[in-house]
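Record type: ASSEMBLY
Status: queued
Input:
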Amino acid sequence: MVKFGSNAVIGQSGGPTAAINASLAGALQSLISHQEITKVYGMSNGIEGLLKEKLYDLRNYFDERSDGISVLKTTPGAALGSCRYKLPDTDCDDNNIYKSLFDILKKYQIGYFFYIGGNDSMDTIAKVSEYATKNNIDLKCVGIPKTIDNDLVMTDHTPGFGCAAKYIATVFAEMRRDTAVYSQKAVTVVEVMGRDAGWLTAASSLSKTEYTDGVDLIYLPETPFSYDKLFTDIERIWKNHSDVLIAVSEGIRLENGKYVGADGSIKDKFGHLKLSGAAKVVEEKIKNRFGCKVRSVELNTPQRCASHISSLTDIEESFDIGGFAVKMAFEGNTGVMSGIVRNSDCPYSSHFELFDIKSIANKVKSVPDNFIDTENSFVTEKAVSYLKPLIFGEVYPIYDSGIPKHFIFPKI
Amino acid sequence: MVKFGSNAVIGQSGGPTAAINASLAGALQSLISHQEITKVYGMSNGIEGLLKEKLYDLRNYFDERSDGISVLKTTPGAALGSCRYKLPDTDCDDNNIYKSLFDILKKYQIGYFFYIGGNDSMDTIAKVSEYATKNNIDLKCVGIPKTIDNDLVMTDHTPGFGCAAKYIATVFAEMRRDTAVYSQKAVTVVEVMGRDAGWLTAASSLSKTEYTDGVDLIYLPETPFSYDKLFTDIERIWKNHSDVLIAVSEGIRLENGKYVGADGSIKDKFGHLKLSGAAKVVEEKIKNRFGCKVRSVELNTPQRCASHISSLTDIEESFDIGGFAVKMAFEGNTGVMSGIVRNSDCPYSSHFELFDIKSIANKVKSVPDNFIDTENSFVTEKAVSYLKPLIFGEVYPIYDSGIPKHFIFPKI
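Status: finished
Output:
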C-alpha cells in the first residue's frame, strides 16, 4: 500500500445550493485544526480544476481569528467553484485521466480526498476510491452529500434540501397573501425544481399552517399528470375560495410518460433531459379551459441560492456533516459517503453514519407512495411530518449596508 | 358644510407589496387609539367592497393586548383585500356611483377616508375628495402612498419600494454566487418588475459591493434598448469574467418604441400594456448570437411579497406614514397625499409632508437621466446614493415552526 502523504484536498461539484459552503466550512474548520495535515488544498471547479492543478492553499484564507468560516457558512453557491465532469470507468483509462489525476495527487502528497456533491459527484468519488484500491494506493476518499433535490438514497435527507424547502414554503405562504388580495377567480401555477423527484415541490405543503392557507394543489413527477384531473381539482378549490395556488414540479409527466415542459431534444452530458416551462404550459391550458386570470411563476435559481432565509436545521447539519466526514477519513474509512440518519420526527433529532459509496452513486430516491395523497394532488400527513423539521429555525447572513456579506475566493 | 359623523374608513388598492400592511398597521394603531372615533371600518377589497358595504369593524380584530398590529406589519399582500376600480369623473355620475358611495359614507357616519395605493388609487382619492368638496360635504380624504415601482411624483420615494429593492439586490448578490460556480462562458438575464419606470431594475446595482461582484449590466425602460449594444456590452464583461449577470426591466423598449417583451394586444382597464417575457426574448437573442449557455429568470411576484427579507427603513417609514396620514386628517387636511421628503442621504434621514393629491394622480416618475450612465448599461453613483439608504436594516417576520406568521382577515 503506497501513501502519497497526509495532505488533504477538498472539492465541490454539481449544482450550487445555499448549504454546500456550510459543509465546506465544517470540513475546513476540522481540517485546519489538524496540525498533522501540512496543506489543505481546495480544488478550483472540482475535479476539472484538480486535473489542471488549479488548487487553493486553503490555510491562507482562513485562520482562527478571522470571520471567514462563519461568512462562508452562509454564502450560497459553491465557493471553490463547481464542475459537471464525468470520470470514465476505472478500467477504461484510454485517455490516461486516472494516471494524470493520481500523478497530481502524488505530487501534492494527498492522503485525504473529500468531495461535496450529489449523485453524479458520488459517482466521481466511487471511481477515485476504486482506482486507488485497485492500484494499492492509500487514499481516504469520503463523500459529503449535497443537493437541493433530496434524491440521494441511503441518507434520510440531503444537506441543502432544508434551505431550499424553507425558501419554497416561505415564498408559497407569501405568494398566497399576494394572490388573496383580489376577489375574482384566478389561478397561480408555480413551478418548482426537481426533475424526477418531487421532494421540493412537496415542501410547498409546509406553507399550509394554522396561520396561512398556503398552497392548494401539489403535483409531483412521481404520479402521472392529467389536465382533466387538474381542471376538476381547480373547480373543487373554487368552491372554497377564488384564488387557487398550485405547485407543479418541473418534471411532471403525462400518462404517456411525456414531460409537460419538455422540448425533448436537449440532454446534458449525464443524459438528463433539460426541462423548462411546465408551469407556462399548464398556465395556457387553464386559460384555454376557464378563460380566467392565470399567472405562472418559475421559482428558478433563488430556490437553490436564497441563503438570506436559511433553515437552521439544514445549515447546522450541513456544517457538522463536513466535520464528520473529516473525522471518518482520519479514522481510516474510504469509499464511503457520510449520511444523515433520523432518530425521530418530533422532537427532531438525527445522527451521522457512513454508507458504501457504490450503493449511492447514480441512484435516485423518489417521493414514496405513502407520502402522496390518494387523489395525487397533495401530500399526506406522513410527508409533512418528514419534511417539517427540516425547515425549523432561521439563520440569517451578516448584512453590510443592507446587503448580505458573502465569502468570495479570488479566481485562479 | 355637512358632516356625516366622525367614524373612519380605510382601504387598500392596486398591486400588493411587502409594506402596504405596515402602513395599514400604522394608520390603525393611530385610529384605534382615538376614542372620539367610534368605529374604524376597513374596506374589503378597496372601494369595490365599500360600494357593496363589505366592511370590517377593525376594532374587533385589534386591541392593545394582542400582537395583531406587529404581525400585520410584516405580512405581505393587502390584508383588507385590494381592487383595481376606476371611478368615473365626478361630473359624469351617470350610473350614480358617487351617489351610492356617499349614501354609504353617510350611513356609516364616515368623516375620515383613507386610501393606501399607487397613482391609480390617488386618482380615486382625488375624485372622492373633489366630489365631497363640490357637494359641500366635510369628508377628510388622505392618501397613503404605496407601490414597489417607486413611480409616484412629489414623494422622494414610495413605501414598499425599499422592501422590493432589498429583495432584488439580495437575490442578485445570491444569483451572482450561483452563476460564478462554473468556469465556462455563460449569461444570466434577470427580468425585474417596472413597466415604465426602471427604479426596481436600478436597485439591482446595490448587489455590487466590496463583498460581492453583483450585477454586470443594467437596462432600464428609460433608454432605448439595442441588441447590438447588448452584445458589445457582454463581450466587454467577458474580458473580466466568464459569467455575465444582466438585469432587464420588463418594460425595455427598442429604438422604435416597441416593447421587447410585449405581445401588444392586451391592455388592462387603466390602459396599461400587459407585458411578459422580456428576459426570455433577450435570452433567445443572446443564444443565437453567441451559442453559449444562457438562462433567463423572471423574478416575478416574490419581488412584491417577499416580506421574509424586508428593509427596516421601508417598514418603519411605511408604518409611520400611516400614522402621519391619520394625524393630518384630524388636523383638518383633505385632498392630500402624505409623502416622504428626504433630508439627507448619508446619514439618511427623512420627514413627512402633505402634497396636493391632484398633482400626483395619474403621473409617473421615471429614473432621471443623471441616474443612468452614459453607456445606458448601468446606473451612476448618484443613483446608488439615492437607492442605498432605502434598503438599510433588516426586519424579519415572526416564525412559527419554520414558516412566517401572517395576519389574515376572515373573508366577508
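Annotation: Residues 161-179 of chain A form the longest helix (19 residues).
Annotation: Chain A touches chain B through 64 residues (CB under 8 Å).
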